[in-house]
Amino acid sequence: MSTSDDDNSRTDAPRPQPQPRPATRPQARPEKRPKPGPEKVGPSPDGAPHFAPYTHPAAGWGAAKSVTRFLLREGAYVDGPRAVMRMNHENGGFDCPGCAWPDDTKGLHLDICENGIKHVTWEMTRKRVGREFFAAHSVTELSGWSDFALEDQGRLTEPMTYDPATDHYVPISWKDAFALVGRTLRGLDDPNRAAFYTSGRLGNEATFLYQLLARELGTNNLPDCSNMCHEASGRALQAALGTGKGTVDLKDWEVTDALFILGVNAASNAPRMLTALAEAYTRGAQIVHVNPLIEAASRRTIIPHDFTDMALNKSTRTGTLNLQVRIGGDMALLRGMAKAVLEQSATDDKALDQLFIDRHTSGFAAYRDLCAATPWAEIERQSGLGRAEILRAARVYREADRSIFSWCLGVTQHEHGVDTVREIVNLLLLRGNLGREGAGPSPVRGHSNVQGNRTCGIDHRPADAFLDRLAEVCRIDPPRAHGLDTVGAIEAMRRGEVTVFVGMGGNFALAAPDTPYTYEALRTCELTVQVSTKLNRSHLVHGRRALILPCLGRTEKDHQRAGVQSTSVEDSMSMVHLSVGMKRPASPHLLSEPAIVAGMARAALPDSATPWEWYVEDYDRIRDTMAEVLDGFEDFNRRVRLPLGFRIKQPARELVFLTRTGKAEFSAAPLPDVVPAPGTLALGTMRSHDQWNTTIYSDDDRYRGVKNLRTLVFLNRDDMRERGIAEFDPVDVTSTARDGSTRSVHGYLAVPYDIPRGCAAGYMPELNVLCAIGDFSTQSDQPIMKHLKVTVARSSVTGGTATGGTNTGSSAAGSQA
Questions:
Q1: pLDDT digit string (tens) for 487-518?
Q2: 92: buried, middle or exposed (CB in 10 Å: 19+, 13-18, 0-12)?
Q3: Any idea what the Cα angle at residue 387 is, between residues 382 and 390, rounded to 5°?
Q4: Per-residue pLDDT tens for 371-402?
Q5: What is the rounded distance in angstroms from the CA atom of residue 634 to the CA atom of residue 329?
Q6: At residue 664, what are phi and psi to the nearest 5 degrees?
Q7: How far is it, in rounded angstroms, from Cα 47 to Cα 750?
């Protein structure tokens, strides 16, 4: 890329609009709807499937080689290294659009990871998708492409609208695109017939404007990706501590005595955590990993920015104990640890922090009695662990002065996800591991600003206090009734009750459960709007009318009337900091996300007193308004420009609990029965290493030893032997939903793996088809994608296909080969 990419020159003239000159117009033809899916996700393998356990350290030379190959494949010889030197840097750097792990606090210049570099390089591609591309390829044709192939075409360059007469997307000006959105929204007989979805990549300023648009319009239909991942964490922590977030920060990780990591594949999903784990081990901390699979991050690592270790190929351990619970067995393990600590307290007056319990908690007696009444045999059965293993973990906890519990979707995507997170809090409270350095709960958020989205108003169940301040400051009358979450929005679309769907980032069609059902729901809409950087499946699964609105990427400079703008993001540990792009936009026709939201808002609310255009001229103005509305954002513009930004205050960290009792609350939930019925398995979906959410970089999963294969199911060797299944045998996997309907994938290849008996695992989004739309937690409303009831049998089918059933027994199929 030439040096002009960094040119700061900018006039105050409006952005040039794409001219509506038609490319060669495709001939009109009858619309042909593609099958409901799911389609092939990854690229075409370059060889035969291969599996061999990975024995090398996480990160290190394996990551370095993978990044090098990726940069060469993408032709990012200059931009890739430049991005590495600007990513996650304070004072003018941009925030990695990948995970939400906090930035280093000590000035590290290579605070990066393999997946972050891939994610940024994928965004900075030189490839472009413009009107010529869409003129050459119909939606029906593109629907047969793999998801990798769709994204690999490059960056979207101008607004497009679907033409049903030709089955092609055609150019549309921004003015006309906004007019279509506004006209459709104004024509609704009820604002609740629209849903506004948010993906975690959206910055705080655009997030605030987006929720303001929805609420000024008159709806709280604000589904988001949290509804599918950490909703359980927020509800549990809110009930127990009066805050929906963790209480620890990165400095606490640096001094804690014990780390308990539950349901997290850190080497792939939060790779920069490896640095914290290695440092913890080096200073003598105990690190306990709890996961049905022994993942790479639980063994050892070589940190790439440690040049001496890289040169010497010297690895550092990242774990001291691995506990392979059965799928869903985390809560039983936690209950067993609590039971052990309570039993020890009879002879050890240091086992409990009784003073803390008496002063700061409520419900201890009921919880103590529940633990005493829970038999060890039941704890062992439900956890899948022996008593000795549980006692070993309890001993680590008892001997540590300060402990942190960290968890991710392996804990939350279950029916009992809220109860399990509350059990984590119970265990922390027993020893006063709250409100002091090096101790507390630490959920690992998976997407760059997903926590900031919720903080800044994306919540279908907003608190009255937030709505009161929003009404006062922004002078609107926001609705008070709860809106729809992700599952609720899909069901409402399918029934025809929601007719407009706006997707702000992400790939909703591929991320959601029950793929055929979700596809049908989206196609029922009158209008679907997708704000995106690259072509993806959600552009091909659309309503009767559809818009693709291309936006700036995190790496790109955002020029507005007041100059180059910065946006803020919040990480997993409540730190808020600025992000500033470094590159010239991929196209002169791209708009920023705040500008797109403002354009839709003005078109939908032409008489609105909200100064939408004025906000977009200078994002400081948005932040000034946010400072008046949001708790913890006081003096926002000054504090966000401090080195490393600022941390949002957490009352629970100061032992101030905004609960019904004013204290931290123990819960007393019974253990769930998670043992599969005879002949069935519990299957959890997960990401591969060479994948970020629904973006697939290759068909490899290096840390699990898989090459050239995604349509697979990991199985325990004894479970395979019992079913007469050998390695790479094609198998059928059939899930049974709560309503009795079944969904299947056929011809997937069996891979023997170190996983507990009765458990199985495979990749999302391919296996999302197995999770029925009605199979969501009654505690959190999250789809239970980590706990599907399945049967696995030898198949006569090869190549991988899927069928999905419904309550009426109908089915749909789509190639997964």
A1: 999 999 999 999 999 999 999 999 999 999 99
A2: exposed
A3: 85
A4: 999 999 999 999 999 999 999 999 999 999 99
A5: 42
A6: -70, 135
A7: 17
